[in-house]
Amino acid sequence: MPDEFQFRLLATDGAARCGEILTRHGPVATPAFMPVGTQATVKGMLPEAVRAGGADIVLGNTYHLMLRPGAERIAALGGLHKFMNWPHAILTDSGGFQVMSLSGLRKVDERAVTFRSHLDGALVELTPERAIEIQALLGSDIAMQLDECVALPAPRADLARAMRLSLRWAERSKRAFEGVRGALFGIVQGGDDPELRLESLSALVDMDFHGYAIGGLAVGEAPEVMRKTIESFAPALPVDRPHYLMGVGTPADLLEAVARGIDMFDCVLPTRNGRHGLAFTRFGPISLKNARHAEDPRPLDATSPCPAARDYSRAYLHHLVKAGEMLGAILLTMVNLSYYQELMAGARAAITAGRFEDFRQETDAMWAQGDLPPR
After folding, report:
1. pTM of the complete model
2. CA-CA distance, 4 to 86, in Å (whole number)?
3. Residues noted as catalytic
4. CA dist list (Å): 116 to 126, 127, 164, 359
5. Which of 61, 138, 277, 312 could form an S-S bond across to 289 if both were Cys, CB 3.0 to 4.6 Å?
């Protein structure tokens, strides 16, 4: 392992793990939730507000940044950390998922994925080597291999083909990463098929990546399918490397995955839902569009460390959402990102204390109780 990337496992409780990732831009406490900064910004948030909310690391996106403003331009301006004024850790995904989900016209072959830009229709080719080059230009602390992600449900033959292509691309990504600073994670594919997942994981472990991500979930399958799939191969993930579940998810998804040995998460849900009037809180999700909040003077959570949850009335937040004011989206994004970080901090403390299952049950009970005031 290079000195500028290390993973230390600090405590376990059942399969749940508490640890620390050391990067050249600072430590990342795990389990960790990474706010999504797709286009070098976490939507609606100042970088210092993202940090104040508890984030150690954010995610940037290769696909979007390669198209606009361009990886070479960002490199010339000092790299992604300086460009977006985020001096802490950054993970960049390889762009494979966005190619599959955003580009209607695309072609996948052994060499590369070729697609039409969703911005201007220009033809773009993305090879495993180019994906690594872009991430190196961005200066990310953790880079991801290029992979092919298949939406579920899908025929086993399609899952197997994409998984094995992703393995060949993993080998090419590993070679291209030689001499690049930071860390490179391999991505386990195979859809909802346990045998394919184990085949993928075994081959990736033989390649010796710095960490292992789980891709191809939360792409159309039911939550119970996702959880069973993780259970089927998570015990085989290397103990001394970080485990990253890509693109997941709801607060309940996060706790269920932590219970199965996952260390890292990213998802657009807290920011996207915040922009659409939904708050995630320790009382469960709260829709500020609901008319019942129009005359409610209570804050979302009087004991929250987040000022947006603690210092603004539900009536005011409801008004902002109904009026379409941008402040409503900003405040609810703050609420949601803060709650996700609070949830991860609670999980870390519970694992360290050997009471993670109690924490999970207590959190579930609070969500079930809801936010209505006692009669």
Report:
1. 0.96
2. 18
3. 93, 266
4. 11, 14, 24, 47
5. 277
